[in-house]
Design a protein that fits this description.
The protein is 81% helix and 0% strand. It is globular, with a radius of gyration of 20 Å. The protein is built from twelve helices and no strands. The model is unreliable at 374-386 (pLDDT under 50). Helix 2 packs antiparallel against helix 3 (63-84), helix 2 runs parallel beside helix 4 (87-114) and helix 7 (197-226) runs antiparallel to helix 8.
């Protein structure tokens, strides 16, 4: 399992390490805010388009070769800019990284589910999410040190080595999970299955968690600066958010496997915590910011492993890649939509109202989760609800 956890760390470290440092380096590749925005959108756009496709490919040929191919492609794309060092190649490298992450991220999720018994999915996805959270936390920090020491090329070179090392590790140690026989599926069959509550409920919760996490990381520092807080205080708030998410995920997974928590109850509680954190972000001063960071981190840390475990439990085994790819698409839409919603409302009112709007939407999902008791199936072996 450790190579799969390392793959999760790689995609998170690469995404946030570069995104947080593209605008601050002194090379000539990023010449304006428009160029910066385009480079950031290029990576996310590739993931939105390609993750469902690579998920289906994992079902067709097996998740292990898609995982390995994605890691190799990530290493090659990273090496491209490290060697070429020109603005045009930076665009190509960033697109290649996004496409490669679209392959090995859902494939790793499929293998986490396939290589663990259903009664252990909570622990497995909790550990996987923990390592991704560490990548999200360390990416901006270590990425900043690398860019300071050797420019953006050094960061890309380190990512190339990391991707290649994880690819070799996975090739040597990850067992094969052969594709399962499957019946023919039409587009209507796929649409019907993805419209079922057992898919929509956890996917919506995962999208809401990612939206809140992205909005918190992006806008809590803005709130801090508005009340006179320095970079140390605002940086501590973002670290608190990521740290809480990392610490909660393995514990939530163990509670699910031990029968002390069900997927439905955990998702509803996680959405409630996240909505409470976004509400606290509306309060002025350091106290509101720290409360917001802790609650958003805890809420997203609760939702992430339970959401993926619920999807793995309800999805047909032969369509697991397709399910995970579609769920990852939902997360990517939340990742982009959360900050866009907050920014759009803040531009016509204030940032307080932007946080409030996202809190209201997240709270509405929490209420819906509480009311629809059968919207998320409990994992095998857990207490049946409803």
């Amino acid at each position: 399992m450790r190579p799969l956890y390392a793959a999760g760390f790689t995609t998170a470290f690469g995404a946030h390490g570069i995104a947080a440092n593209l605008g601050g380096h002194t090379d000539d590749a990023v010449t304006s805010l428009l160029v910066l925005g385009g480079l950031l959108a290029l990576y996310d756009g590739a993931e939105v388009v390609l993750k469902p496709l690579f998920g289906m490919l994992a079902d067709r040929i097996g998740a292990r070769p898609v995982l390995f191919g994605g890691l190799v492609a990530f290493a090659a794309a990273s090496a491209l800019y490290a060697v070429a060092d020109s603005p045009g190649w930076l665009w190509a490298a960033r697109l290649g990284q996004g496409a490669a992450a679209s392959a090995f991220s859902p494939s790793a999720s499929v293998l986490v589910a396939r290589l663990n018994p259903s009664a252990g999915h909570g622990r497995a996805f909790g550990s996987y999410g923990f390592h991704k959270s560490i990548g999200y936390t360390l990416g901006p920090l270590l990425g900043g040190v690398l860019v300071w020491a050797g420019g953006l090329r050094l960061l890309f070179a380190v990512l190339a080595v990391l991707g290649a090392a994880v690819a070799v590790w996975a090739a040597l140690t990850v067992p094969d999970a052969a594709p399962l026989p499957k019946a023919r599926q039409t587009v209507l069959d796929l649409a019907r299955r993805l419209a079922e509550p057992v898919f929509l409920a956890p996917t919506a919760a995962l999208a809401a968690a990612t939206a809140a996490l992205s909005a918190g990381v992006g806008f809590l520092p803005v709130s801090g600066r508005a009340v006179g807080l320095g970079t140390v205080a605002t940086g501590a708030a973002v670290s608190l958010l990521a740290g809480c998410a990392a610490l909660v995920q393995p514990r939530a997974g163990r509670a699910l496997d031990d029968g002390r928590l069900t997927a439905r109850t955990g998702l509803a509680a996680g959405l409630s915590l996240t909505a409470s954190g976004l509400t606290c972000a509306m309060l002025p001063g350091l106290t509101g910011i720290l409360l917001a960071a802790a609650l958003i981190g805890a809420g997203t840390g609760l939702i992430t492993p339970l959401g993926f475990a619920a999807l793995a439990a309800s999805a047909p085994a032969e369509r697991l890649g397709q399910t995970m790819g579609a769920a990852e698409l939902g997360r990517e839409l939340g990742d982009a939509g959360g900050p866009l919603l907050v920014a759009a409302i803040a531009s016509i009112a204030t940032l307080t109202y932007g946080f409030g709007a996202l809190a209201a939407l997240t709270g509405a999902l929490a209420v819906a989760e509480f009311l629809h008791r059968r919207s998320v199936l409990p994992l095998p072996g857990s207490r049946t609800e409803g």
